[in-house]
Amino acid sequence: MKKILTVLFLLACFAKAHAQVSLSTGWKFKAGDSTAFSATNFDDSQWQAIDVNKPWERQRHDYYNGFGWYRLHVTIPASLKNSSYLKDSLRIDLQNVDDNDELYLNGKLIAKGGSDIKVSNYGPRHYMLATNNPAILWDKENVLAIRIFDTGGDGGLYGDKFSISMNDIMDYVSINTDADFVYGAKNAVGKSIKLISKGNNYNYKGKLDFKVTDPETGKVLYEKTNKATFTGSKPFTYTFSAAAIERKSYQLSYVFTDSLSGTKISKVESTPYILTPAPSAKPKINGPEVYGARPGNPFLYLIPATGQKPLTYKAVSLPKGLSLDVATGIIKGSVSKKGDYPVTFTVKNAVGSGTKQFTICIGDKIGLTPALGWNSWNAFGLSVDDGRVRTAARTMIEKLASYGWNYVNIDDGWEIDKRLPSGEITANQKFPDMKGTVDYVHSLGLKMGIYSSPGPTTCGGYLGSWQHEDQDAKTYGYWGIDYLKYDWCSYSEVSPKDPTLTDLKKPYQVIRASLDKVNRDIMLSFCQYGWGKVWEWGAETGGNSWRTTGDIQDTWRSMSEIGFNQDEAAKFAQPGHFNDPDMLVVGKVGWGPSLHNTHLSADEQYTHISLWSLQSVPLLIGCDMGALDKFTLNLLTNSEVLAIDQDALGKAARQVVKGNTYQIWVKEMKDGSKAIGLFNLSDKYQTITLPGTTAGTYKTIRNVWEQKDLTKGAGDFKASVAPHGVMLVRVK
Ligand code: GAL
User: Fold this and answer.
1) Does residue 584's CB lie within 6 angstroms of at least one atom of ligand 1?
2) What is the pTM of this model?
3) Which of 36, 83, 449, 570 lies 20 to 30 Å from 208, alpha-carbon distance?
4) Where is the signal peptide (predicted)?
5) pLDDT (tens digit per residue) in 429-468
6) What is the rounded (10 degree) CA torsion for 608, 614, 618, 620?
7) 3-state secondary structure of 709
8) What CATH code is carried by the domain that includes residue 723?
9) What is the tens place of the pLDDT at every residue in 657-668?
10) 726 and 687 belong to one structural domain
């Protein structure tokens, strides 16, 4: 295939590289607290060796909240200082701290995350220390001790980065690539990037090297060097547009070199590319084939359909008690009699019609297929508010609900500080009218979710439901809540120290019973990070889904470690009860007020959505819905990919090939076909073979993302797969 890439216009641009001591090994850890732990000569030789890339929960401290200490013996070379252009400050980066910290160097407290260590202050730290500070022992062994307090959930020091470096001229510079890509004809993409400096008065003057590489061949397709100057008040902008003939990611690299200091900063990103074809103008009904509701409870289902508007909806053989709004596709009412009701949906418009056979199952089971929706956490963290939630609902109805997306879930941060005198919970000032918000969401045909903890407080330090379970369930019922995420967090404070299986189940049984007293179908999502192999008992304990892991981050390391380690839990997935490897990290994420584009590449995002769909898990979009870019929207609106997740058989894919650099996951579908993901875990393109014996006898292999048939007949199937990417096929 021909590969052409032309850069149409360029204006300006950015970059950073400097010496640092990167240390993720050699750390020692102890749970507990003592002032003696900060001392230089304290003997930590018997302490546990720990990896600072993972929370302590993943390293033998399963249920632990409270204090923990990390210690590291490290030589800080004077050459670090000498080779730096600026010589005034040493910089220590921790990513992330969960929840708060104090940093000691050779016995002296040199920095802390907040005035009260017991107040949650999750996030990365960038600490600066004057180079003439006597606490630093240059060219000698230093002892770094970090005291951490975890309020609940995952705890400790973890993430991608721990480093000691010199604060240098480029530490004030960032290459801002946050602007959305602009799409042109023939898969062309372009954008403006910016070289920005903040916090100093330096006049940056140098060059920006821009390069486009084809990762498949390694060939440099375009190269250009531009002069670049910028200051704190005047950033440098560089704009390009590149036409890529092939549908794949190209690598873009930006390197700024400052001529006076000789220092550099660089950034690499890959171009997004669209795979999902645009929907047809003709009506098509998406979403699952089955929907479960309990007898006598309020029923709400929006028929998800794409096609040119206006659409009109029809439902034949709706059970007694339900009625359809023919203009919106919203079915409401309540069915008193148990039973499986086959229904035929038809949707019409000016260009044609679409039909679907559907079964409404009135019985004890709800959530027959995994939830599809949005959750506020990965985008906004504790800064969620009513406006953001309403924006999510509005965007969902405008752009996503026609593909089956329907839950709008508020995570932590909505709760008031103190219960009402009656003991009732209510929302804080960020949600002035919770019932009004829920009514609004329902009026669109969508569902509303909320969050709490069985402990006295949530992981974010807000009020939990401890000893108020019935009361809270009643409040949720009054508001009209359809989904509850119930997060263990501070429940460790009230449960036995080393909880048995019975102790682990207890808070979930209690809340399930409370929810069952309410006249609503409320989905229950367990969040206790996979403790006690929850997948083995989540269903019998009343969970519609259960988290199998700690919190996800928007990095390849986090997403792939979680996603490719779900095989043990896979066999427990069944209609009404699903594994939950945590929410999606696509689009603009941030866990707080400031957001950034996900750090996953386009191919990593295709892997993320494919793997999660194959595993039949809840898909909860974790981005700012008010800022959905074209790529993210395309990624989330592939009806054939979503149909894999929503398959009525409810089976999760199994890992059938686990190679060093690739994996194959196979999911059995209700119609007898198989959905198969060929995943490339390496950094290079590779050809992956799906053996004929794994595929079974088949007539066609369909490329699911592109929605087109690839080959007929049996035998081995080979696909060239991008680094960290996937070929997702349906074998029929
Ligand atoms: C964590 C949970 C996250 C989020 C957060 C809220 O424990 O895993 O998904 O809900 O608490 O504080």
Assistant:
1) no
2) 0.92
3) 83
4) 1-19
5) 999 999 999 999 999 999 999 999 999 999 999 999 999 9
6) 30
7) strand
8) 2.60.40.1180
9) 999 999 999 999
10) yes
